[in-house]
Amino acid sequence: MPIATVNPANGELLKAYEALGEEEIESRLAAAESTFRHYRTTTFAERAERLNRAADLLDEDRDDIARTMTTEMGKPIGAARAEAAKCARAMRWYAANAERLLSDEHPTDADAHDSGASRALVRYRPLGVVLAVMPWNFPLWQVVRFAAPALMAGNVGLLKHASNVPGTALYLEDLFHRAGFPAGCFRTLLVGSGAIEAILRDSRVAAATLTGSEPAGRSVAAIAGDEVKKTVLELGGSDPYLVLPSADVEQAAATAVTARVQNNGQSCIAAKRFIVHTDVYDAFAERFTAGMAALTVGDPMEESTDIGPLASEQGRTDLEELVDDAVDRGASVLCGGGRPENLGGGLDRGWFYRPTVLAGITPSMRVHREETFGPVATLYRVADLDEAVSLANDTPFGLSSNVWTRDPAEMDRCVRDLEAGGVFFNGMTASHPALPFGGVKRSGYGRELAGHGIREFCNATTVWYGPVRP
């Protein structure tokens, strides 16, 4: 895939970039290693001052970087501005909390003495150069939720961003430079995916984090495993959205629309499989389908647009194949089910797909097992909670889950039995700096955000002091 900005709303090539050569990659690796040697000794206060400055600059740049993101990957302009604002808030949160999250841990005096120590502690120290392989769907947020904690912990970062968002990738490097971080502290590598293995195997790279597809995660995990390097993986998701009899059906249906189509439906944590108890199925299906059908598809630069284009032509083709397979095998199309017509203004050349609801899904359909990365929802009717939980877990993925119920016993059961990295009640899954984020099964391993995320790329060092003899 070429490194280029192609406007997905009309297919127009706006700018192409040359991939870095071996000498340029070597220069950035050397600078990262050299920078880490002294950056790791800076204080939390020094790092926080720079990260707060980056947040201020991002707020000032919000409109411009939002337009860049929308042009490169098609998200509605309002959502792009919200993404930039969220990143600035996360930076400030880590600037304020990193020192507390990484403070020394002290065992009790009794435990220390039992170990033969006069005292003992655990200290979190940075690992070094961390390679971040990041996707296009949240081109700013995915990077910042790695970069903010990593930089506050004393690590340095190398970013290999998706090849269709080079403008956003270069902006991030410039942002941290303008904020006062030392040269080499955060650099963008404009390279193709074929260059990742050599970079990851380089002895100067200590660890890697990847958000992306399962095949990409498998590849990075295999290479890192061969090199015995730490990784954190956030991969695909096919999150269930359970609606049980005690739910507020009207609110559940309204929230379901947003939960499915955020970022034009291209989100790992979007609700994708809507599993509804038969007692409320008809009411939910009617409201949900109406809400999906009412969404405005169009130019993502227009404030009134709800759904912009998919980020790539191949992404739309993949989505069409999943829907066609389901329909051929008996699924019902309650709304949508194809490309929009007569958008005008050159948008007919863009990679748009109508918000779609499919019902009558069976295990024989690809859409039952595979992730739909676009505005397509699958709707299931179940007889009871047992069937709902069984169906929710009938997926290779386990990123997050959503449950609508007022029943405390049902809540306890879902927390106990749903195979996912998160369970969100009476709302939709979202990421927040104060809460750990990640999945199980083929959705990956490790955690981002909160204290769990900042410690992923730290060396938890045991410090033991022997008895002092007179």
Can you characterise this structure?
The protein contains 16 helices and 19 strands. The chain has 2 domains: 254 residues, Aldehyde Dehydrogenase, Chain A, domain 1 (3-Layer(aba) Sandwich), CATH 3.40.605; 195 residues, Aldehyde Dehydrogenase, Chain A, domain 2, CATH 3.40.309. The model has no long low-confidence stretch (mean pLDDT 97). The radius of gyration is 23 Å and the shape is globular. The longest helix has 25 residues. The relative contact order is 0.14. By secondary structure, it is α/β, with parallel strands linked by helices. Helix 2 packs antiparallel against helix 4. The strands form 5 sheets. Strands 11-12-13-10-9-15-16 form a 7-stranded mixed beta sheet, with helices on both faces. A 6-stranded mixed beta sheet has the order 6-5-4-7-8-18, with helices on both faces.
What ranges have pLDDT less than 50 throughout 5 or more consecutive residues? none
User: What percent of residues adopt helix (DSSP H or I)?
Assistant: 40-55%
For the record, the CATH class of the largest domain is Alpha Beta
Largest sheet: 7 strands, mixed
* Annotation, overall tally of beta strands: 19
Q: What does the radius of gyration come to?
A: 23 Å
Quaternary class: single chain
Classify the beta-strand content into a percent band: 15-25%
CATH arch. level architecture of the largest domain: 3-Layer(aba) Sandwich
Mean pLDDT across the residues is 97
- Work out the helix count: 16
Cα(first) to Cα(last) distance is 69 Å
Secondary-structure-based class equals alpha/beta
Name of the CATH superfamily of the largest domain: Aldehyde Dehydrogenase, Chain A, domain 1
Across the major sheet, the strand order is 11-12-13-10-9-15-16
Number of domains: 2
Stated plainly, the CATH topology of the largest domain is called Aldehyde Dehydrogenase, Chain A, domain 1
